[in-house]
Every structure is written in structure tokens, then in C-alpha cells.
Amino acid sequence: MIKASHFEVDRIGRYKLENNDEVNEWIKALNQSEELALHRECASYEPSEDNIFEIIKCQGLPSIHVKNQIGLTAFEYLQMNPNTDFVIDEKKFINRLILELMGEIIT
Q1: For residues 52 and 90, what is the distance between their CA atoms, to the nearest angstrom?
Q2: Exposed/middle/buried for residue 43 (C-beta within 10 Å: 0-12, 13-18, 19+)
Q3: Residue ranges per domain, the chain?
């Protein structure tokens, strides 16, 4: 993240304290585009499997591999999210998505 940002760091590689507010705002703004809706959900305070499912259903499976400006995928955000221990079993998740999409096509 430090390499991707435009902020100065001190000699040991930390952001300078006077830049804290600006750095926090930059981080918050990283995932604001519609393309990164999945990133926003996975980084949210209470990520929801149903919301994640709906976003992927709308954006397609490739959305799980999209990296943002700092090189993170949505599921990497979910893994690092300190507010939740929620984990997605990708295989089961993809199976659920395929079954639902098949059901929509059949009906």
C-alpha cells in the first residue's frame, strides 16, 4: 500500500503522522468505484455473504479476481478484515452461484 500511495514516509517506511487524516481518506476512497463494490462489501464492518453473492451475481465471477489500486482482491480484504471471522469457501460459493444461475436460465 505504501508503494501505491503518493505520501511521504519516514526513514523506517511509515507514513508521517501529519499525513494521517489524508492517508485515511485516501484509503477510504480506494474502493468507491462501482467496479469495486465487492471490495467495499468485503472491507465493510459487517460483510454479508448474501450481499457478496448478489454483487458477484451482478458483476460476474471474474470480479473476485479484480485487484484495486493497491493490488488487493475483495477476498483478500475479507481475509484481513479485523471486524469479522467470516470466511467464504470459494468452491461452495461458486457452486451456489452456478446452481442459482442455472435455475434462472431453466425457469
Answers
A1: 12
A2: buried
A3: 1-30, 34-106
Contacts of 2 by beta carbon, 8 Å cutoff, 6+ apart: 9, 13, 15
DSSP 8-state symbol, 30: T
> Residues in the chain, how many?
107
Using alpha carbons, list the distances in angstroms from residue 90 to 46, 87, 95: 19, 9, 8
pLDDT in tens, 1-23: 555 566 666 676 665 666 667 76
C-alpha cell at 52: 457478496
Is residue 70 within 8 A of residue 1, CB to CB? The reply is yes
What would the grid cell of residue 91 be?
Answer: 468452491
